Amino acid sequence: MYCATFIFAKKQFDDEFHRLDQTIAAAARSLPGYLGEETWENPGNGFVSNVYYWDSLDSLQALISHPAHQQAKAAQANWLDGYKVVISEVLRTYGDSRIDHMLAPSVHSAG
To answer: Could you tell me the residue range of the domain that residue 41 belongs to?
Structure first.
């Protein structure tokens, strides 16, 4: 399993941003290999983190290649005050059963 974490600092979002954001999210959810997503905001620095989970790098690459993603990437400076992307392989997940999460240990644990 892989995750793509998109960390960014916000500027002002307009209608075009929201349209592209919704299009990209819908495209991700429709792709084979999509496992889920989460969004986090750090109140200390205001950074936002969108985390997408994928069953393979090929699945992730399909989103990266999507025309709406390419359009948003080209225009990111209009809406973002900087960004980082982290692509990582998930080696294992663990925890107890009290959190209902897409990465439930009983499903994805490697030990």
So the answer is: 2-108
Query: What CATH code is carried by the domain that includes residue 101?
Result: 3.30.70.100
Report DSSP state, residue 98: T
pTM of the model: 0.81
DSSP string, 27-64: HHHHSTTEEEEEEEE-TTT--EEEEEEESSHHHHHHHH
How buried is residue 77: exposed, middle or buried, by Cβ count under 10 Å (0-12/13-18/19+)?
exposed
For the chain, the domain total comes to 1
The per-residue pLDDT for range 28-73, each reduced to its tens digit, is: 999 999 999 999 999 999 999 999 999 999 999 999 999 999 999 9
Residue 25 and residue 22: Cα distance in Å, rounded?
5
